[in-house]
């Protein structure tokens, strides 16, 4: 399936969750077995050979893509979650949203220093969420080797907040 065909499976909903936001709804892609499978395969292909030690999925849609990619790569899955969801000892990062702030957490013992990690989320928008995740990875002394998205929204400038050369997205809207 081509990126254009995959893009056509994503439903666009204007003014969700608030006026002015053009929401890219991936549920229509997920419910199509061939499109979901092709997305996982296409996101996984460039990640093979990176010798990554772990894959981080960002709550919650990053879990949907991250977990099957981790399994394909034969590496463990590490969740980055919203405040108060992880039961063990955590480290936290506060980051800016369009309105207000949010907190992300990771288990302190989830990554060893020097671990090579891949970060996965569904959509790159402003990049705030993944920039926060990168800070958590750095605090644990791990090394990001790839950041993979199903789709990116280039008009929102997220890539500029992320390291050069390790960011990829199958689709751009
Ligand atoms: P970001 O602005 O890059 O921090 O985006 C935060 C999260 O919100 C990402 O994980 C996306 O899943 C989601 N998101 C932001 N904007 C959109 C959008 N227009 N359509 C779909 N998801 C979005």
Please write out the topology.
Elements: H1 3-8, E1 11-14, E2 22-25, H2 27-30, H3 33-44, E3 54-58, H4 61-73, E4 76-82, E5 90-96, E6 101-107, E7 116-124, H5 128-139, E8 143-152, E9 167-172
Parallel strand pairs: 3-4, 3-7, 7-8, 8-9
Antiparallel strand pairs: 1-2, 4-6, 5-6
Helix pairs in contact: 3-4
Characterize this entry briefly.
The protein is an alpha/beta fold and 173 residues long. The protein has helices spanning 3-8, 27-30, 33-44, 61-73, 128-139, and strands spanning 11-14, 22-25, 54-58, 76-82, 90-96, 101-107, 116-124, 143-152, 167-172.
Structural notes for this entry:
The protein is of the alpha/beta class and about 170 residues long. It contains 5 helices and 9 strands, in the order αββααβαββββαββ. The protein has helices spanning about 5-10, 25-30, 35-45, 60-75, 130-140, and strands at about 10-15, 20-25, 55-60, 75-80, 90-95, 100-105, 115-125, 145-150, 165-170. A 7-stranded mixed β-sheet has the order 5-6-4-3-7-8-9, sandwiched between helices. Strand 1 and strand 2 form a beta hairpin. Helix 3 (about 35-45) packs across helix 4 (about 60-75). The chain is globular, with a radius of gyration of 15 Å. The two termini are about 15 Å apart. Bound molecules: adenosine monophosphate. Adenosine monophosphate binds near residues 21 and 126.
